[in-house]
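--- STAGE predict ---
source: upstream dedup step, 1 unique chain passed
mode: sequence only
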Amino acid sequence: MKDKLWQLAEPISADILGQFPELDPVLLQLLWNRGLKDQAAIDEFLNPDWLADVHDPFLFKDMKRAVERIYEAIGGNQTIGVFGDYDADGVTAAVIITSTLKKLGAKVEVYLPHREREGYGLNEEAIRYLKERSVSLLITCDCGVANPSQVSLANSLGLTVIVTDHHQAQAELPAAFAILHPGLAGESYPFKFLSGGGVAFKLVQGLLRYEGCHLSQTEREIQEKWLLDLVAISTVADMVKLTGENRTLVKYGLTVLRKTRRLGLKKLIEVAGLNFDDLDTYAIGFQIAPRINAAGRMDHANAAYALLMSENSTEAEELARSINLTNSQRQAITDVMFKEACEQIGKINIKTFFIQAYKPEWSLGLVGLVAGKLVQQYNRPALVMCQVGDKIAGSGRAGVGGFDLANALTACSEYLVSFGGHKEAAGFSLSINQLENFLSKFAKLAKAHLSGQDLTAKLAVDAVFTLDKIDWHIAEQVELLEPFGQGNPGARFASYGVLIANTQPVGSAGQHLRLELSFESSHQRFIWFNSAESSKQFSIGDKVDVVYEVGVNEWNNTRQLELKVVDIKKSDS
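--- STAGE serialize ---
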């Protein structure tokens, strides 16, 4: 376990407590730490309301234009092409739009690109293929805003293009018939942080709420409601901010997910060994989304799309089991790649402002995962690359110091063949002979931004308590903050000078550790996940400081407080 700098939140003052007498002090501290400091923001956060907090889709400046063109295509029996992406956000976005179009009676052709052969975003071959399939209206999902030349090609072939996207736009916007993108300059939609699936859902809302929709009001509401499981998966998987409208979409989406009618999703949840009643953002982020992603990372996202669209129980179960196996293979290969990357990087120091690893044989579908793990390990921006054909392709993660990965790649564009993504995560490709130039320029950008910053990994701590203060009351206050995610991290507490009274390895390979920690006459049980190596430096009788999350473990109809170790140090350190 790498040493982290614990950053303790400043306790709120008596004056602040007096401003919100109706709120429990623990809850108010947690809200304050998350930047929720006025009554309106607190009310929206604690009480997400579908009618009040989910915005009218027609606030998108191009929504009416897009909806009317789609209904024109449906009415004219035109074939609509839906072009998605190969990750969980792009796949769910494609399912959200396609399933609704079919409900409305549209003829639909769906196309998901192959990660290695085609790469991210619209491509010429796909456009020509869809044209040959008689597509006259093309809707992109989770991509398109960075593809002006491809949209121009589609236009020249007689296709009308509607872009739904949320990625960072380039200087030149595509000449699409309509663009639904909440973050574009001049866009009137009030919430800017929707996922790709979230934008797709807004388009669907527009279609269902349009006066020309032939479905009954009940049918419209049913269709909209039962898509929220996919919206929740999309939003959590793509790690967009879980605040504002996203928080409302995910909160209601989790309710739908626990009761999902989607056969493939049911089977996937079952093979993952998850309990439907316990599904939360953690289950999505670490169990469901990685399995959906595994299809596109290891082979083709078509398998994940077919799973989520399946209406046959046997087919759904076979697909779920196949994807589950694929995910296991993905985990094993990722572990090997990560180990090899760490060996390449070796030791770093305060003058190391970014890290990079390259091996021609690595899987393009997994370099992003490895980059993410490297950021966690070294707390530096990371680029991980492999070779695809005669090009180098890679993925980056920012993860520290406010470094903007998308802007950095834009600044290096003279050396790149293609690139795109977000501030925190992005992909790119380049000619092999440009690698040295690219890395040199990127290194200068990283140094200019991060030089002088303390790059020690930081761990935000919400409050300090003695162990005897940790009880069901605190667990109940923490629960009010769910669902957790980007912009709303799980609540973390610290206790100092506690004694390790007992330890017990648990898990199939003893990879986890159950601890009993005591302070004076108080005892609490903790679980420390994946700690087989890190825990070797601790022994029974050691006095430690610990940061932990407070949760509830339900098993065999019994509920127990579960304290999860986030970080632990010997008290004298």
